[in-house]
Design goal:
The longest helix has 28 residues, at about 130-155. Helix content is about 70%, strand content about 0%. The chain has about 220 residues and is mainly α. It contains nine helices and no strands. The protein folds into two domains: about 1-60, Arc Repressor Mutant, subunit A (Orthogonal Bundle); about 70-215, Tetracycline Repressor, domain 2 (Orthogonal Bundle).
Length: about 220
């Protein structure tokens, strides 16, 4: 049976195999990032983990840096969608503004915590890679916009006047403290310095954001 040729001249089954192979390469790189907590691994390790030849990898990317940027883009696209869905709904049914603030803060903090193993390596890589830094900032800005929108929506439902500027400042405080507690951007060998537990952190963060945003 003859194979139908695509515009590129490659048969469709070969194209599908190529897509499947590259998906395995991306998954292998993603797994190594999570396991190591850094990008301290080689393309040879990715090749062995994915069971895809080095030559096939270089047929798709110029090198490890490009592969990592592709993985980051996929992971951060996923995180952006998750943030939009979870934070967009947080606080909608809260009894009052304080409770809504706590729900929004907790939902965002949990996203950061559950994705720490993939976020942290890219925080480190962004120090030297401008493209990775820019993509990270893009997601950071998108996350802030979702947080601010949810917080201001909650404030409006409970008759609290809250400016964009104040909500943005509350996010900056929340995000900085949460990132520091989780140790994002710290090598896997370092342990975040948590003088108190996660639940207490969420309580403190929610209270701090409420104090910044609630009327005097």
């Amino acid at each position: 049976m003859s194979l139908r040729r695509s515009v590129s001249g490659l048969s469709e089954p070969q194209q599908q195999r190529s897509r499947d192979s590259f998906a395995k390469v991306r998954a292998a790189a993603r797994d190594l990032l999570r396991e190591r907590g850094t990008a301290q691994f080689s393309l040879a390790e990715v090749s062995a983990r994915a069971d895809v030849s080095i030559g096939a990898i270089y047929g798709r990317v110029a090198g490890k840096a490009e592969l990592l940027r592709i993985v980051q883009s996929e992971e951060f696209d996923r995180l952006d969608r998750e943030t939009e869905e979870r934070i967009g709904e947080a606080g909608a049914e809260a009894a009052d503004f304080a409770a809504g603030t706590a729900q929004i803060v907790s939902a965002y903090a949990e996203i950061l915590r559950s994705n720490r193993d993939v976020l942290s390596p890219f925080f480190l890589l962004g120090v030297d890679d401008g493209a990775i830094l820019a993509r990270g900032r893009q997601s950071g800005d998108a996350g802030q916009a979702v947080f601010v929108r949810a917080l201001r929506g909650c404030a409006e439902r409970h008759g609290v006047e809250l400016s964009v500027r104040t909500a943005e400042w509350a996010f900056e405080i929340f995000y900085s403290l949460c990132v520091r507690y989780l140790g994002l951007g710290v090598a896997a060998t370092a342990t975040p310095d948590g003088a108190y537990g996660w639940d207490e952190l969420l309580e403190r963060l929610a209270h701090t954001v409420y104090l910044v945003t609630a009327p005097a």
